[in-house]
């Protein structure tokens, strides 16, 4: 790999954390703001988020949900209503104590999540079984006062969608919870080319106030896991705390069964750390703001620019195409768009025009392909699809290579050091074992996967009988 082209980016194997920081800033995804732990999402980063957001939003609407908007502030008394919920969030909320120079009679919380606001609203609008289900979603920013922060992965303020639904029965709520988990898995696997493990969180790791939390977990290049989307089944806990009741068909008063589910700008961090390489970002075509960047060669020569712009117009019908006709050198442009992870570069110069051809360069493999003009459209569409599936397969292969089995704590520890990644191990279900594993290895339980395997009969920690297989990993 031509190291001299990527002077600005630290090599991944040298320092993965620094590589990540270099990529997010040098590829123009973000800038830092003067508020600690906050980030400015720049146009390129926001275009990427917009694409992801559109894919999620489309699926949310296709599954029958409606978008709404809740206020930014939550009165303290409202947050206090559900005990587990407030305990879970209290350490990381930001408080508003003054309006102008006047101290507020009641402090306000800047929303860390909007459960309680939805609950307050649902109490007002749900009365009869005819009002159910309520399938609401909001796109918003939330604030969590995190101690250590990293762009996209953990920031004081982040963007997300939060779905909040209310149902007549427990079965309906459970069906919704799993349906939305599958929506997240679909976006991650098919748009972002990130393979996921679907499963349930342990009691310790579940959401504050939830009965069940389901998660999609993905594995980064460095072998750490990232929780990439969660879906919660609340049962009637919130409904009881907030008094959300409806009259059923027999005229009896019942509590509603609720769910919530969220997908955040964190997935951009996942995309960077799953697909990126020493040259920078690698963006799967379906998520890429620009899928094809045209770089004219010897563009001062007569006809080159006209030809390049014609190509941009004609190919614009089948792909998201841009052109860099600035007076910067082609070598600079190659480097820049490789760093930005644009899936395909199209080079065209006087000789190509004469030979009725162009050169396509794949970002994922850096392979150069000469394509004749009469086949260009068709070949380009096929190439984008091939890059998409190649990235997915590569990520899946990496995850498989980085997934081990452990039957003792010593083995678990050894595997994590020798080959960081997912460790499959049996667990007895005791919190004490989960905590000991974390203390001894700094790995956390990622999920109890839906696809179970019996890798042993005994708990990896205490050696007692165990029938649940859990994925363990160090995580972001
Ligand atoms: Zn145990």
The strand order across the widest sheet is 3-7-8-14-11-10-9-22-23-21-20
Percent in helix: 25-40%
Give the overall average pLDDT. Answer: 96
Shape: globular
Round the Cα radius of gyration to an integer and report it: 25 Å
Counting helices, strands and paired strands, the structural category is alpha+beta
Number of helices: 14
Number of strands: 23
Largest sheet: 11 strands, mixed
Q: Give the strand content.
A: 25-35%
Q: Ranges with pLDDT <50 over ≥5 residues?
A: none
Bound molecules: zinc ion
In whole angstroms, the N-to-C terminal distance is 29 Å
Would you write up a description of this structure?
- The chain is α+β, with helices and mostly antiparallel strands and 476 residues long.
- The chain has 14 helices and 23 strands.
- The strands form five sheets. It has an eleven-stranded mixed sheet with strand order 3-7-8-14-11-10-9-22-23-21-20, sandwiched between helices. Strands 16-15-17-18-19 form a five-stranded mixed sheet, with helices on both faces.
- A hairpin with a 6-residue loop joins β1 and β2.
- α2 packs across α6.
- The longest helix is centred in the C-terminal third of the chain and has 26 residues.
- The two termini are 29 Å apart.
- The mean pLDDT is 96.
- Bound molecules: zinc ion (ZN).
- Zinc ion binds next to loops.
